[in-house]
């Protein structure tokens, strides 16, 4: 990507990819951690260097020009190649503490990592993790773009660019207010909650769509007018009698210290669970380390959380 002896800078290419992702200069600048005028100036400089218009700007928004669309894949390859170069150089540096960027969903991370990371650090003291939370879709896309080194997610993938190592299956529990007519039962039948008002998280969460499928299967009424912003909020909505809900087993194991306010049970003859896996790029120079890490994490989870989850075969 060079014209007349002058080449665009790495940052200019990175800025172009960010604007192409968000199609909004303000949002892209925020994600990049720079000012909007700086971003605009650098994009203009990139277009001048290439003698091309990459973006169509109007009062209604920003779009990729045909030239921008044609160059986007190559720009992303530049970023990925640079990321792989940095990863390899980092791993080749002997005796240095290695920090990996770990992505995990907000409905899993706070309720799993406190049980796993202390033991993992004790067994592998050279490992460090920069943990960031995002939805499973964003985690997978970010992993492919090099924003994460490794992710732990319930989203299964057959993407040939990723290596996936299944870890465990987490049950989803059915919870009701303590004064609900189903309270006190260890198991309820699907027909018992047909027509019940089921509360869940906002639809930006993968968990929302999982609960939506469950409701469709059993004929329950998913409440779209009242959606929780977090699992804690969702629990409080149930306590206040606004409806019933499904909650992840690890959340209940970690956070439900006063169960008298809620009743927890399961759906009879209908095990509901989500599988969590560790995933990394098949081109990662750390892939051997990640495979070893997945074995260690499985062992830790099996020892620490055997009463809350089921290990994958």
TrEMBL record:
One of this protein's Pfam families, by short name? HTH_1
Q: Does the keyword Ribonucleoprotein apply?
A: no
Give GO cellular component annotations, separated by semicolons.
protein-DNA complex
PROSITE patterns given for it? HTH_LYSR (PS50931)
- InterPro entries (UniProt xref): LysR_HTH_N (IPR000847), LysR_subst-bd (IPR005119), WH-like_DNA-bd_sf (IPR036388), WH_DNA-bd_sf (IPR036390)
Listed A to Z, the keywords are:
Activator, DNA-binding, Transcription, Transcription regulation
Q: Which residues form the HTH lysR-type domain?
A: 8-65
Task: State the Gene Ontology terms under molecular function.
Answer: DNA binding; DNA-binding transcription factor activity
Domain of life, source organism: Bacteria
Family membership noted in the UniProt record: Belongs to the LysR transcriptional regulatory family.
The record ties this protein, via PANTHER family, to:
HYDROGEN PEROXIDE-INDUCIBLE GENES ACTIVATOR, TRANSCRIPTIONAL DUAL REGULATOR HCAR-RELATED
Protein name per Swiss-Prot or TrEMBL? LysR family transcriptional regulator
